[in-house]
Design brief:
The chain is of the alpha/beta class. It is built from 8 helices and 12 strands. The chain has a domain of about 170 residues: Rossmann fold, CATH 3.40.50. Helix 5 runs parallel beside helix 6.
Length: about 250
């Protein structure tokens, strides 16, 4: 069992406060969906957990299994068991998907390579599970990929690396209904005593396939409400205006 613990997290960029005291505890075996209006800090939270140098943590703490990850570099956080599925995956010309994947596995395993036959077998089977093109291994990383292909490639990396806790930032954007089902079911099948997930999303549709343990609403850089399935249905029906009225919150982005 693993646990990611975030306490009173404050994050800024260019002296502007983005996160204003986030508290969150995620255990393996759980899915925590984070929803909220645009500009409320959801992607900032994902980047801060993973260690993006763009953001400055001014207060608070993040622990993974009692280790202070704020003292770790990005690669050390990945080796400790964190994974970020990015909202906008980068394209890397000249590096094939398979070469990138082998290098990532080697880096996560303290320089030890996965045996090539084992890698090929696992890579090919994962491609099939995600119903991706068979030439995926030989294409350059995300180059010329559609939005849906990029997102499936993020999940392929997730399944190959098997982290303790994954943060998936709008992994559903750019997916048609068939790809959404494939991605959702593949992530949902991973949930276990060894794996948990933070799922950042705007839409209920991905949550039809990845069943959340808890749903959190983030507004103005804070988690202001936590619930379960009924909270998703209320958001889908009424948006976030009722949150504003019920809690007396003014959206700073408005």
């Amino acid at each position: 069992m693993s646990k990611l613990t975030i306490k009173n997290l404050h994050v800024s960029i260019d002296d502007k406060n983005i996160l204003n005291g986030v508290n969150l505890e995620v255990n393996s075996g759980e899915v925590h969906a984070i929803m909220g209006p645009n500009g409320t800090g959801k992607s900032t939270l994902a980047s801060a957990i993973m260690g993006s140098p763009t953001y400055t943590i001014t207060e608070g703490s993040i622990f993974l299994d009692n280790e202070n990850i704020l003292e770790m570099s990005v690669d050390e956080r990945a080796r400790a068991g964190l994974f970020l599925g990015m909202q906008y995956p980068a394209e890397v010309s000249g590096v094939t998907n398979s070469d990138f994947m082998r290098a990532a596995i080697r880096a996560n395993n303290e320089g030890q390579n996965m045996p090539i036959y084992e890698f090929i077998k696992k890579y090919d089977s994962t491609i099939k599970e995600l119903k991706m093109n068979e030439d995926m291994a030989h294409r350059y990383l995300n180059e010329g990929f559609s939005g849906g292909e990029k997102k499936r490639n993020e999940i392929l990396q997730l399944k190959m690396l098997k982290p303790k806790i994954a943060i998936l930032d709008e992994i559903d954007s750019g997916l048609d209904i068939d790809a959404l089902k494939i991605v959702g079911e593949n992530v949902n099948d991973m949930i276990s005593d060894e794996f948990g997930c933070i799922l950042i999303t705007h839409y209920q549709r991905i949550l039809d396939y990845i069943k959340p343990t808890y749903v959190h609403i983030m507004i103005n850089g804070k988690i202001v409400l936590t619930g379960k399935q009924d909270l998703i249905e209320k958001i889908d029906k009424n948006g976030y205006e009722w949150v504003k009225e019920e809690l007396g919150i003014e959206f700073e982005g408005e």
